[in-house]
Amino acid sequence: MKSMMRRIGVMLIAGVLSCVCLVGCGAISMDDIKGDWTVDTINGQSVADYAASLGLTPEQGVTNWTIKDDKTLTSTNITGTLEFDMELKSDGFELKQKGQSDIFCSVKYDKDAKTLTYAVKDASGATVTSVMKKGTGNLEAAPADDASEAEEPAEDDSEVVDEEAEDSEDEAAEDETAEDETAEDEEYEEEE
User: Fold this and answer.
1) Strands (DSSP E) found in 43-156
2) Count of alpha carbons within 13 Å of 109, Cβ hemisphere only?
3) What is the dihedral of CA 107, 110, 116, 119, to 10 degrees?
4) In sequence order, what are the residues at sequence separation of 6 or more whose Cβ sits closer than 8 angstroms to the Cβ of residue 170?
5) Which candidate among 74, 126, 136, 171 keeps its CA 20 to 30 Å from the CA of 82?
């Protein structure tokens, strides 16, 4: 009977170890996810298209994450930076803002696509689903936009100068016409 109990005990321990191994083997590792990530799509649209649908510039739709070995995540967008603590799960991780116990969001990692997917509620209460890929997105406005804005006033100034020159020419022509008319009037009076 004792040997039978030992066999059952050994089988139970082996079964428990097998379950732990299977669960542990499926978990993601920090090597899978550490590094820089940026938003690729929002609600199935490109960042630029989604931002435009809200009347925003493309930079305003960009969010970059940096995941570190110490299981922390830094989220940066045009409005600022937030720090999160991560808790790894079998298919991703959960984020909690530094110093808080509530889960901010759950993130799923797709090993085949090498993407991170998460959903949060926006200010109106609608769910916004974002898919992230490795890399970083640009948070600054393109320099070409700034240059074209800077050039516009210069063009407007030149038009003002041209208009002023035309006004001066018109006034000079009017003065000449007035002088000619005065001279003609004087000649007419002399003839009489």
Assistant:
1) 45-46, 63-67, 72-77, 80-89, 92-97, 105-110, 115-121, 127-134
2) 21
3) -50
4) none
5) 126
Instruction: Tell me what percent of the chain is helix, strand and coil, each rounded to the nearest 5.
Output: 45, 30, 25
Quote the tokens at residue 137. 């997105």
**Distance from C-alpha of 35 to C-alpha of 65, rounded to nearest angstrom:** 8
Name the residue among 133, 113, 116, 138 with its Cα closest to residue 37. Answer: 133
Cα separation, 50 vs 41, whole angstroms: 8
CA distances from 39 to 59, 69, 117, 143 (A): 11, 21, 9, 22
Tell how far CA 145 is from the center of its chain: 17
**27: which DSSP letter?**
S
Nearest to 102 by CA among 126, 88, 85: 85
Give the pair of three-digit tokens for residue 68. 């570190």
Q: How far is CA 31 from the centre of its chain?
A: 25
